[in-house]
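@channel anyone free to eyeball this complex?
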Amino acid sequence: MEELFPASYIVVDMVELLKTVNLKKYFPVKSGFLSKPIYIRAVDDVNISIKPSEVVALVGESGSGKTTLGRVMIGLMKPDSGNVFFKGKDIYKLKGREYIEARHKLQIIFQNPDSSINPRMQVVDVIGEAIKELNPKLSSREILDEVLRLLETVALSPDHIYKYPHELSGGEKQRVVIARVIAVKPEVIVADEPTSALDISIRSQILNLLMDLQKAIGISLIFITHDLGIVWSISDRVAIMYMGKIVELSETEEIFSNPLHPYTKMLIASSPSTPIKITDPTFKPRGEPPSLINPPRGCIFITRCPIATEKCLINSPPLIEASRNHYVACIRNN
Amino acid sequence: MQEILRIENLKVYYYLPQGIVKAVDDVSFNVYTDEVLGIAGESGSGKSTVAHAILRLVKPPGEIIGGRILFKGRDLLKLSEDEMRALRGREITLIFQDPSTYLNPVYTVGFQIGEVYEAHEKVKPKKAIHKVVDILRSVKIPDPTRRIYSYPHELSGGMKQRILISMGIALTPTLIIADEPTSALDVTIQAQIIELLDEMRREIRASMIFITHDLHLLSEISNRIMVMYAGKCVEIGETSKITSDPLHPYTKALMQLLRYPRKSKLQSLRGSPPSLINPPRGCRFHPRCLYSMDTCREYEPNIVNINGRTVSCFLYSGRYG
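replying in thread with the prediction:
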């Protein structure tokens, strides 16, 4: 029964722009000549759909699979099973021109801008390359104009145009990355902790820029973070991940005002930056995530759960709709 | 309240080929017994350099070029290297951000904690084992008799930080300096480590300097907060006063930045932190300051005392200076 995909939890309120169905991505960690390989379940049976112009926050601790999920969702990593549908088409089955177009529409901003900009390229070429990719027939004059326009959009002055990455500050580099991403006119952007390497005074500048662009262009944004303050401030919906699974999914206000999964409660209780506090000592953070190689039997959260019962040992609870648009994977809420 | 540490006009400069980096420039503050002093600031504000300077661990090209560091009345800058070595760990201890950098990967953690006792208390290795097991139990490491034989790579980040804390408190120091001890950890682990650190500190009745960029965290654990900007101390005061009524424009901006309004623009601070080789003339914050005046561009502000708080800003020097 668990293996079947219960139709009840596919959200079909609006047109789905991007949707994953039973997505799984396992990484082999050890494989011997005769022994069976051991896998880490980075993404384990994830179903989520993203609506147009929506901001979805993917929240989880390190090792929860949020980065892997983000990458699989935009076509950077082939899943082991399951599908990713972009506008109804499986992106891993697309070929030729269609595939390239889908990849343009699905973009990613990485945490560390240094690793995503070629240190030997000037800003004009970093952004120009992306413009050319979308529109190979443009002359170099037209490309330059477009680069200047994009720099203005991300609030960088034209004197940055011939600079090399090492001449820019961290915040400026991230702006260049954002300019390059929007150069190809994406519809979905995965932002993988884009501000966690930045200082607090620069962080809000970049977040404001991203949100302004999101509103102006109407992009769907999948925002990967562990900072619940940012989640509260920018997202429409929140997906909480723990060890490769989505354990709770709902609208942002609902998640913060009425968290259902004990892990969500623990996260909120331990986060100093959220406006809503949980003071119930039951949900005081305890324990550490178990090894991904040897996940516990039954519910994955059982080793840290303050409200676990014997039933939780039996099997892994599916994500089901507890109330309207509020999904939770915990048997204590049924 | 008794003073345990007093720092007067500390200056730490780094001599780089590009010029002199004034990482800590004329900073003065004190720490009382049984107190947690939080030091907040962005990267490059000099907060870690202060920590290293207290233990005289500033490495070339850096150099402590001026000031006094009075610990229980003794000027640490005048001690010999041997006297200083005896003091590190026993009197003042430092807990770092990234535990894996400070644990030796080729020795078991039990051996490494044992070394602390062997070096400072001349305990025989066989006896040290018992002490190691006890201290691991007190930092709530499960199954300590088995864990002493683990190598650092076998432990999680949170567990390694517990090991580092146990080494830090092994000799019951009177001052613990924690330099961003939890920024490499996940939030649920961070909360547990902070609680442990505070519990241990109370148990051994030590004072603590807690360094972080996270003012939220400081508002929960510290008695007083010192805010640093570009190598200068801009404001010191009681935590509740700093968070509810910040005086310095930079502290005000920081407090604004920490507010997360739902679905509306986040507060931001224009510009970026200055270069420390060529800091702006006058007040180092003036190019980003919303209240800057002509004086701020020309002169460095003095330190002003207002009702037990210290602030370095011309907005207040007229009336109180």
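from a first look: Chain A is about 30% helix and 20% strand.
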